Structure formats: C-alpha cells, structure tokens
C-alpha cells in the first residue's frame, strides 16, 4: 500500500480494511502511523540484513565476498521487491532514523572493506564513493529487471548470471589498486 | 510511577476532532493530570485523529467525558 500510494496514501482505515482487522486493533499494536511505518521498516531491514549476511564471510577475499554480497542482495530484492521500494521510501523521508541501523551489519561491512584494503585488494575510498561503485550498479540493474524495462526502445532487461558476472568484473576492476 | 498496583494496562482508542498541534497542546494538561492515564498520544497524521490511551482501567466513558469537557468531540473507536 505504501509502495503504491506513498505515505500520505496510507490511512489506518484503508490498512485495517485491507488487513481485515479493525482500526482499533491496529492502534493496540502501533502508537500512530509513524510508529507503524518505523516498526515495519525495522522489520524489513532485519530481514534484509539476515539475507545479505547469509554465507558471507567478512574475512574473505574481496572479489569472492562481493560476489556473495551481490547474489544475496539481488535474490533478496527479487523475492521482496516491495520491501526494497518501501525501505528506499523510508530512507528518503524524514521518518528515517539512522541510529536504527543494525550494528552487526555495519560491523561486517566495515571489516570486509578494511581487510580488503589491508590486503591491497582494493583502494581506500570515501565510503559514499565506495558504495556508489560497489553496490549502486547492482541496485540499478535490479530495478531494470524488476521494472521489466530499461531504456526506451530496449527489450525487457533480464539480470542473469552472465550479466551479473560481467558487471561484477567491471566493478572489481574499478576498485583495484 | 503512576498508581497502578497490579500493573495492568488497557489500551483505549477514540475518534476525535483534535487535528492541530495547538489542540493537542491545550488538551495536554487535562490528560496529563489524570492519574488513570499512563500514556497518551494523538495520531494527527490519520483522518480519524485517533486519541490512543494507555490506562489503568478499561472504561472509555471517563476519558470521553474529560475530552468533551475540554471542548472536543470524542467517541470510542470500534469499527
């Protein structure tokens, strides 16, 4: 509902109707609309973190670790497209509280990058630039895939293993010393 | 700590016409001064302007009385 109609389109009435419960029931569990959105966000982020860290070893070689990360993140987005769009909406809204980010996730990402820098597998970069090179291309391709369209006049974009490997190799090349 | 020896809490929800921060402010002393109310808030972002109360008793009537006396409409939210 939030993904389709935005936060303003979310009324407790519509939500209660869609969920088949009473408005009063929703207010037993949530203080107000903001509380509901924040709890939903925390829950979605938790699921995303669990999925992202599956079989991921922060001590692994950068190339290998990044591939695990990409596949985990991609599969999570494909299985939960609403979750991806919803968490993005929250991140770009005043409701977003940065202090709620899972420390286990941050710690794993931090360790992974710093070990890779120590072993001279990648160059040190400001984190925003690192993220924009290491992960932003993946999310853009995932969006093309989910939207089933990319550029005007192009056939539907399918993100398969071959395209993942091609992009990943370019990303890794860009981050090498 | 409010006087609530058995620690039981009841959540009461009401539909009101309190839709501005100004009104919430003017109602604050009334609700804060009520010993049976543990916590309260009003959801200004929703169309029902829901007043949500955590109280030591399950009765809606005393709250409705309080809010109406302060000049606002207030009814139990049931649907």
Supply Rg of chain B.
12 Å
CATH superfamily of the largest domain in chain A: Tetracycline Repressor, domain 2
Global mean pLDDT of chain B: 86
How widely separated are the two ends of chain B? 33 Å
Distance between the termini of chain A: 45 Å
For the sheet with most strands of chain B, the description reads: 4 strands, antiparallel
Predict the CATH topology of the largest domain in chain A.
Tetracycline Repressor, domain 2
So what's the overall shape of chain B?
Answer: globular
Count of alpha and pi helical runs of chain A: 10
The CATH class name of the largest domain in chain A reads Mainly Alpha
Q: What portion of residues of chain A belong to β-strands?
A: under 5%
Q: Greatest chain-chain interface?
A: A-B, 12 and 15 residues
Helix run count of chain B: 2
How helical, in percent, are the residues of chain B?
25-40%
Spatial extent as radius of gyration of chain A: 19 Å
Biggest sheet record of chain A: none
Fraction in beta strands of chain B = 25-35%
Number of strands of chain B: 4
In short:
Chain A: Residues 1-48 form the HTH tetR-type domain. Helix content of chain A is 68%, strand content 0%.
Describe this structure in words.
The complex is a heterodimer of chains A (177) and B (79). Chain A has 177 residues and is an all-alpha fold. Chain A has two domains: 30 residues, no CATH class; 133 residues, Tetracycline Repressor, domain 2 (Orthogonal Bundle), CATH 1.10.357.10. Chain A has ten helices and no strands. The relative contact order of chain A is 0.11. Chain B has 79 residues and is of the alpha+beta class. Chain B has one domain: 2-Layer Sandwich (Alpha-Beta Plaits), CATH 3.30.70. Chain B has a four-stranded antiparallel sheet, covered by helices on one side. In chain B, a hairpin with a 6-residue loop joins strand 2 and strand 3. The longest helix of chain B has 12 residues. Chain B starts with 9 loop residues before the first strand and ends with a strand. The mean pLDDT of chain B is 86. The interface between A and B is medium-sized, with 12 and 15 residues. Chain A: It comes from Dyadobacter psychrophilus. Chain A: Keywords: DNA-binding. Chain A: InterPro entries: Homeodomain-like_sf, HTH-type_Tx_Regulator, HTH_TetR. Chain A: One of its GO terms (molecular function) is DNA binding. Chain A: This is Transcriptional regulator, TetR family.
